[in-house]
Amino acid sequence: MGRNGGRVHTYNTEGLVANGDFETAPSNGFPSEAISDGPTEIPSWITKGRVELVSSGDKVSGGMILIVPRGLKAVRLGNDAEISQELTVEKGSTYAVTFSAARTPPDIVQLQGWDPYSISFEAEKDKVPLIFTNTGMEDDPECGPIIDDIAIKKLVTPDQPKDNAVVNSGFEFGPWMFQNVSLGVLLPTNLDEETSPLPGWMVESNRAVRYIDSNHFAVPEGKRAVELVSGKEGIISQMVETKPDKLYCLTFSLGHARDKCKEPLAVMAFAGDQAQNYHYTPDSNSTFQVVSVNFTAKAERTRIAFYSVYYNTRTDDMSSLCGPVVDDVRVWFSGSSRNEVLVLLGLGPAFWAYLIILVLSWDL
């Protein structure tokens, strides 16, 4: 037992961590007000510094109304505050942690700026601590980040298909997604394909891309896809196996997520030394089109990559970033048939506070 209720938890490798939605009541009940002078008890979590349980509908930071993405409760971290929890995992396996985050700036009336994010790590031990820390120093201590809906998923890399050099070509293998949250999941920079939250792929730029599902977006193939929401600063890439001097074809589906994203939409596609941009051309019968790039491999591994040519926003909200959708990526011989983790997050469109998430191995 750790202070304020922290303990080791064993659970399924998919879904909420223990009290990951902060809906479990403390032993003395939930605080009657959003801000409490004493230390906050949060079941299953260890707290340090100014940690507050807040509720949907609360007025926070100068009269703002708080809206929680799921349920009624969330946690706000003051300057240098943190929450932590020990997890029991499988040594050597890769996991993705998904969470929702927002900030409470003093200049808006209603707080709805929630975004889900995901980071990944390889478990070096069978017990690891998950730590959320606010490293920012706000002028107003009530303006710290708010965290909710913390979930974990064990990642599995799919087998290499026989007729396609691309791993996880349809993006079907990825982090945990909440079925009733319609925002997708933002994937920050990750330059290690071995521990990426999107197996096989890397986010190699300084802005995030959005992982989307067919429950809330138009997806060209299967149930998952990637929306390129950050212009040239949001790049996904993969190194695929090739044979030098052989001619290959890169094909992919380019589409519109049906999220009111303002056109034009266009993708810059890279395959070895070839680069070409493709504009999405709407078709009344489909939300996507299949495009291709021919290239000659120069080495045993060839980089393929995609980014959005434009910085797009939604027509109903000019501040919400969006972009073209990429899916069903294939690389094949043109002559063949086509049948301790530390992340510092300046977390993108709706999250301006500095937040550190630590997943470290402990010798227990």
From TrEMBL:
TM region(s), chain numbering: 341-362
Classification via InterPro entries: DGR2-like_dom, Galactose-bd-like_sf, Pectin_Meth_Modulator
Example of a GO cellular component annotation carried by this entry: plasma membrane
Predominant place of localization: secreted
Top-level lineage group: Eukaryota
Keyword Transmembrane in record: yes
Keywords: Cell wall, Glycoprotein, Membrane, Secreted, Signal, Transmembrane, Transmembrane helix
Annotated DUF642 domain residues: 15-153, 188-331
Glycoprotein in keyword set: yes
Cellular localization per UniProt: Secreted, Cell wall
Name used for this protein in its record: Prefoldin subunit
Organism field: Hibiscus syriacus
Classification lineage: Eukaryota, Viridiplantae, Streptophyta, Embryophyta, Tracheophyta
